[in-house]
Amino acid sequence: LNLSRTLVNVVSKSGSTLETLTNEELVRASFKAAGLDPGRHFIAVTGKGSPMDNPARYLRSFYMFDYIGGRYSVTSMVGAVMLGFALGFEQLSEILAGAHAIDQAAEEPDIRRNIPLLMALLGIWNHNFLGCDTLAVLPYSQALIRFTAHLQQCDMESNGKSIDRCGQSLAWQSGPVVWGEPGTNGQHAFYQLLHQGTTIVPVEFIGFRQSQYGKDLEIQGTTSQEKLLANLLAQSLAMAAGRGNANPNRRFAGNRPNCVLLADRLTPYTMGALMAVYETKIVMQGFMWNINSFDQEGVQLGKVLANEIIDHLAARRRDKNYQGTDDDLSWALLRMVDKP
């Protein structure tokens, strides 16, 4: 990596997140060791007026609104800065245009023309009425290899709640466990359970009619993209309709809930629309469950406890004879980890 031609983007809303600052200092040390001024190679995405909003340390600060959670921030400065550098302003504008189109479509009162609302209601039917605890999101595109992981955070951090907006315990299930892998790789891993397992897993397939780059070969009468799409449609059909057979091992009951999201091609516009479909679906489900989809107290608790353990570690480094109190669970746990 040529550090003299490298730009580092540091993202922290508060400008004081310990993990981010620690990693930043590690990278800054590399620049200093190479005889470079980090202040000429670092930019910041942060809240206006935060400790990172500092021209002496950063070439430029880009501001994010304090009410935007990280999982919904792809179309804010958090995502826009890096996407702008990586793809260019025109492509970034296309991502934003795709997301905006879905935001407008989500206001359509006809459920048959409102994809996020339809998916939200189907998800609640599968989860709350049919008792399906998980949801598999399976994109048939290698470019979306990390998309399901993104949705895990967006969905499970938003709707993994047990308290409603009035502070009362929920009397129903909230968000499902979201998981998945791209395309045909998953067919040779977990699809067997999806087809014949005793656990019913609803599936959301994502596919495209055309290859991403328009470079495809015809082999034995069909293109690679047509073969990929055929596999997607075959899996959806098998889950829905099943197939009978005199051999019980080869019998497929079908009636496994699934839907297919199909677009022409994976473009920046399509990517923006796809993200917005899921973001809107998740928020709509939060409304229906009467929960706050925009906080994450479970995440905050982990940070608080981690800081308590970090404080013990720092105190022990300063004073070898340091001892925490026996009724401090974080100290007791740290002592257990110390034991060989």
Would you mind describing this structure in some detail?
By secondary structure, the chain is an alpha/beta fold. It is 46% helix and 11% strand. The chain contains eleven helices and nine strands. The chain is globular and about 75 Å long. The mean pLDDT is 94.
Keywords:
340 residues, alpha/beta, Rossmann fold, 3 domains, four-stranded parallel sheet, three-stranded parallel sheet, 9 strands
SSE layout:
Blueprint: E1 8-12, H1 18-33, E2 42-46, E3 61-63, H2 77-87, H3 89-105, H4 115-129, E4 134-139, H5 147-159, E5 177-179, H6 183-187, H7 191-196, E6 203-208, E7 218-219, E8 222-223, H8 224-241, E9 258-263, H9 268-289, H10 297-318, H11 329-338
Parallel strand pairs: 1-2, 2-3, 4-5, 4-6, 6-9
Antiparallel strand pairs: 7-8
Task: Briefly characterize the structure.
Helices cover 46% and strands 11% of the residues. With 340 residues, the protein is an alpha/beta fold. The mean pLDDT is 94.
The quaternary organization reads as single chain
Distance between the termini: 39 Å
CA-based gyration radius = 24 Å
Task: Tell me the name of the CATH homologous superfamily of the largest domain.
Answer: Glucose-6-phosphate isomerase like protein, domain 1
Measured as a percent range, the helix fraction is: 40-55%
CATH topology of the largest domain: Rossmann fold
Quickly give the structural class: alpha/beta
Instruction: Count every helix, treating DSSP H or I runs of 4 or more residues as helices.
Output: 11
Largest sheet: 4 strands, parallel
The count of strands amounts to: 9
Q: Uncertain segments of ≥5 residues (pLDDT<50)?
A: none
Strand order of the largest sheet: 5-4-6-9
Average of the residue pLDDT scores: 94
Return the string of H and E elements.
Answer: EHEEHHHEHEHHEEEHEHHH
Counting structural domains, the number is 3
Q: Kindly estimate the percentage of residues that lie in beta strands according to DSSP.
A: 5-15%
